[in-house]
Amino acid sequence: MKSLLPILSLCLFLVSCATLSRKQDNHSTTATKTLVDKELKRPKLVVGIVVDQMRYDYLSRFYNRYSDGGFKRLMQDGFNCTNNHYNYVPTYTAPGHASIYTGTSPMNHGIIGNNWYDKVEDQMIYNASDANVLPVGTTSDDGKMSPYRMLTTTVTDELELHTQSRAKVIGVSIKDRGAILPAGHAADAAYWYRGSDEGTFITSTFYRDELPQWVENYNNSKPSSQYAKEWNTLYPVETYTASGTDLNDFERAPRGKETATFPYDLPALMEKNGGFSLLKGTPYGNSLVADFAIAALKNEQMGMDDIPDFLAVSFSSTDYVGHQYGVNSVELEDTYLRLDLEIERLLNELDQQVGSGNYTVFLTADHGAVNNPAYLQSQGVNAGYMDAKELESYLKKHLKNDLGNDTYIKNISNNQVFLDHEKLKAAKLETGYIQEYLAQLLIDYPQIDTVFTRASLTNSSFTSGVGALIQNGFHPKRSGDVVFVIEPGVIVYSRTGSTHGSPQSYDTHVPLLFYGAGIQQGHTTDRTHIIDIAPTISSLLKISFPNGATGNPISEVLKY
Ligand code: ZN
Ligand code: ZN
Ligand code: ZN
Q1: Which of 156, 193, 198 is nearest to 172 (CA)?
Q2: Is 69 part of a structural domain of the chain?
Q3: Residue 388: pLDDT above 70?
Q4: Is 122 left (phi over 0), alpha (psi -120 to 50) or beta?
Q5: Is 163 in the same domain as 292?
Q6: Which ligand sits nearest to residue 178's alpha carbon?
Q7: DSSP letters of 526-541?
Q8: Among 142, 256, 303, 356, who pairs with 44 as Cys (CB 3.0-4.6 Å)?
Q9: What is the CATH number of the domain that holds 453?
Q10: How many domains, in total, are found in the chain?
C-alpha cells in the first residue's frame, strides 16, 4: 500500500497540471519554457585549475599576502572545501590529475604512478608515453604522448560525448601529463611545454596533425625569451616571514650557483640547467601557462556560445620549486605570491571574455608535500630518509639465504614489489607463500610500518585507514604483489628539498575551491574526496558522470 503513494501523488500532480494548462493562456507556456531552460542552465565555460604540489595550508599560510583577485576571490566568493583529501596512495602527479578528472582512483583508471613497471612490456613505462603517436610542434620525443593508458573517461570526455564534440576542450600545462590526463581522450587538444632550446608549447598526433595557426604564432613570438631574466623576490626578502630564512641547509641550488638564495640570474644559469627547461622550476613557468591559457581562451573563443567549453589548466612550476627548495622556503612563498597574481589575471580575462557569472572555476591540487625531513628533525619531529637500494639488497640477501635464489623479484617501484611469476612457477614456489614471506621481511625493516599482500588486497575490502588508501590505489591487473608503506615523515629522496607520494595527510590534504556559475558561497569542514570533483562538475554541466566514477557530487557546493 505504502508503495502506491508516490504513484498516486504523481497522478494527482499530472491531473492538476493538465487542468492548469487548459485554463492558462500563452503566458504559462513561457513560464514552463523558462522553467525548462533553468533546468538546463549550464555555465558557458568550466575552468579546472590544478596546482601541482599545493598543500591545503598554503591557502592560509600566505593568505595575508594574497591579492583580492586571486586565491582570495575564489575563497571568499566561492565555496571552500577545507577538508578535502586524496583517498589513495601513491600521491603523485599522474594519478592525481587522472583522479581529479575521472572521479575515481587508480584501482579503476589504472594510472598507478608517474612511471610504473609494466608486466606485459617487462619494463618501466611512463604514464603518458605512446609509441604510436608523433610529436607536433617539435621533433623531440617529448611530443610522443597520449592519454591511452588512462582506462576510464574524464568529465571532459563526457562533455565531448554529450555535445557531439561541439564543446571545446583544451588542456594546458608545463608537464605533458598535467595537460593530457585532464583534457582526456576526446579533447580538441592538450598542449604542454617543450623546454630545452625551444621554449614552446607542443602537442601530439593523438589530438591533431599540426598546430593551429594561433599556436604557431604564439610559439614564433619566442614566448620563453621574455622570462629568461632575473628571478628576485616580489617584495623585500625580509618580509617573507611565512617561510624560513633564504639561506638554509634544506634547499638545492641550481647547477652553477653556490647557494639557493635570491636573486637567481636565470640567463646565466640556463646553459647548465637544460636551457629553457630551467624556467619550469621558477614562477615564470606558471606565467607561461597563464599566457598560453589566455591565448587559448581568446583564439578558440571559449565560453562564447551556449555549448559549455572546458579549459583545464595545470600549474606545474610549484611542484618543481617545492622539490628543489622545499615546503618552507622563501622560493616557494614567492612562487605562490606570483601564482596568485597569475590566477587574478586569468580570472580578469574570464570576466572580460565570458562575463562574471557565466563561467565556473574549480581549483585543487594533484597532491601535497612533506616538509623537508632534515628540517623536521631539527624541529624535533620524527622524520628521516630511506635508501631504496639498501632495501632492495636486504630483500635479495634474504631471498638468496632462505630460498637459494635472489632473482625472484622483477622490480620494486612505487613502494610495490613485483615478482617474477615464471621463475616462481619453474621453482614450484607458490606466489602466495612468497608474498607472505616478503611481507614479513618488509615489516621487519626499520622504516616500513605497514605491508599488504596482493592476496589481502584482492580478497578483502578495506573501508578506512591506510588499507583503504592502498586498495584504492591498487589496480588488480597493473599493480604488484606486495605493497609497503613507509613511516610518516620518512622519504626516499635527497636531503634537500621536498617530495610526496605517501598516505599521510601532508600529501593527501589539498585545497578544493569552487567559484562562479551555479556555485554556492560558503565552506565546509566535512571531509570531501578528490574523486568527488568530477561528479560535482558533471552535475553542474548536467552530463553523464565519467564511466568509472566512484565519487559523489558535493551537494552543498551546487545551487539547488
Ligand atoms: Zn604533482
Ligand atoms: Zn633559498
Ligand atoms: Zn612532485
Answers
A1: 193
A2: yes
A3: yes
A4: left
A5: yes
A6: 1
A7: S-EEGGGHHHHHHHHH
A8: 303
A9: 3.30.1360.150
A10: 2
What separation in Å is there between the alpha carbon of 42 and the centre of ligand 1? 30
* pLDDT value of position 32: 52
User: What is the b/e burial string over 53-92, where b = at least 16 CB atoms within 10 angstroms of the residue's CB?
Assistant: bbbbebbebbeebbeebbbbbbbeebbbbbebbbbbbbbb
Tell me if the bond preceding 90 is cis, omega within 30° of 0.
yes
Ligand nearest to the CA of 328: 2
pLDDT at 326: 98
Question: What's 201's DSSP letter?
Answer: E
176 CA → ligand 1 middle, Å: 12
- What is the whole-number distance in angstroms between the Cα of residue 261 and the centre of ligand 2? 4
Question: How far is the centre of ligand 1, averaged over its atoms, from the C-alpha of 10 (Å)?
Answer: 50
Establish if 382 belongs to a structural domain.
no
In a domain, residue 21? The reply is: no
Peptide bond into 263 cis (omega under 30): yes
- 320 Cα: distance to centroid of ligand 3 (angstroms): 7
Helix (H, G, I), strand (E, B) or coil at 56: coil
Residue 440 is part of which domain span? 387-446+448-486
Q: Are residues 62 and 147 in the same domain?
A: yes
Give the residue carrying C-alpha cell 647557494. Answer: 259
> Is 19 a member of any domain?
no
Instruction: Identify whether residues 348 and 221 lie together within a single domain.
Output: yes
Do 229 and 254 share a domain, yes or no? yes
Q: Is residue 82 domain-shared with residue 197, that is, in the same domain? A: yes
pLDDT higher than threshold 80 for residue 25: no
Q: Is the pLDDT of residue 83 over 50?
A: yes
Active-site position among 82, 91, 93, 499: 93
Tell me phi and psi for residue 453, to 5 degrees. Answer: -95, 160
Q: What confidence tens digit (pLDDT) does each residue in 101-129 have? A: 999 999 999 999 999 999 999 999 999 99
Which residues are CB-contacts of 156 (< 8 A; sequence separation ≥ 6)? 101, 169, 171, 182, 183, 184, 186, 187, 310, 312
pLDDT band at 40 (very low <50, low <70, confident <90, very high): confident
**Nearby residues for ligand 2 (ion, Cβ within 5 Å):** 246, 251, 260
Q: Are strands 123-126 and 230-231 parallel, antiparallel or unpaired?
A: unpaired
- Indicate which ligand has the atom closest to the C-alpha of 496: 2
Give Cα 456 to chain centroid, integer Å: 28
Taking the centre of ligand 1 as the mean of its atom positions, its distance from the CA of residue 147, in whole angstroms, is: 17
Ligand nearest to the CA of residue 263, numbered in listed order: 2
Distance 499 CA to ligand 3 centre (A): 6
93: annotated active-site residue: yes
**pLDDT one-digit tens code per residue, 151-193:** 999 999 999 999 999 999 999 999 999 999 999 999 999 999 9
Report the separation in Å between the CA atom of 67 and the middle of ligand 2, taken as the mean of its atom positions: 23
287 and 193 share one domain: yes
Which one of the ligands is nearest to 334 CA?
2
